[in-house]
Amino acid sequence: MEEVDVLSLREAFSRQGIMLGFNGPFSATLMEEIGKALRKHMEGLSESPSAITDVFSAYIELSQNIRHYAASSGVSGAAAEATIIVSRDEAGHYVVSAGNVVLHDDGEALVARIGELAALDKTALKAAFKTQMRQPRDPQAKTGAGLGLIDLARRASQPLACSVKPLDSQHAFFSLRVVI
Fold first, then answer.
1. pLDDT at 168
2. How far apart are the C-alpha atoms of 49 and 10, rounded to whole Å?
3. Residue 147, C-beta contacts closer than 8 angstroms, at least 6 positions apart
4. Mean pLDDT across the chain, nearest whole number?
5. ∠ at Cα 151 (35, 43), nearest 5°?
6. Which helix (H) or strand (E) holds 19?
7. Residue 171 DSSP SS3
8. Mind listing the pLDDT tens digit for each residue in 46-68?
9. How many Cβ atoms are within 10 Å of 50's Cβ, its own excluded?
10. With the C-alpha atoms ordered 65, 95, 151, 165, is the resulting torsion angle positive or negative?
């Protein structure tokens, strides 16, 4: 196995403004503990309560989506692991990025949905959120009410950005970037 150069990794994290990074299997307990650490770190930076709430909400939404997808899609083992990173860009915005293995078709559907949301302005996103809230929820559905991505888009200071990169004939790696 290749030896990890921790100093180089630390320097790369510093250059890219990465405050928090995780790569591996997500459990509810781990998600909660990382979320607590994120809140404490941001409070230590004397961030505004609204910034802390927005970043924390984005982290939780992305983490939950990854966990729910792994549980409902049959993706398991190393393919069920995920990567989540919280950083700051050059302009001082927080950036919450997440990625996980998905089935090709699921990844393409997500890219299409996020593209639709990215094309909407704040007024249209608010209307979409209200419309979605009024929709009846299927009690048999394994996912949420569909509000999470809309809420992420509403909290974001820039349009959501995503990508899908093929891994093999069935799987791809889906990445989503939320700038707050």
1. 94
2. 28
3. 129, 132, 133
4. 91
5. 35
6. strand 18-24
7. strand
8. 999 999 999 999 999 999 999 88
9. 10
10. negative
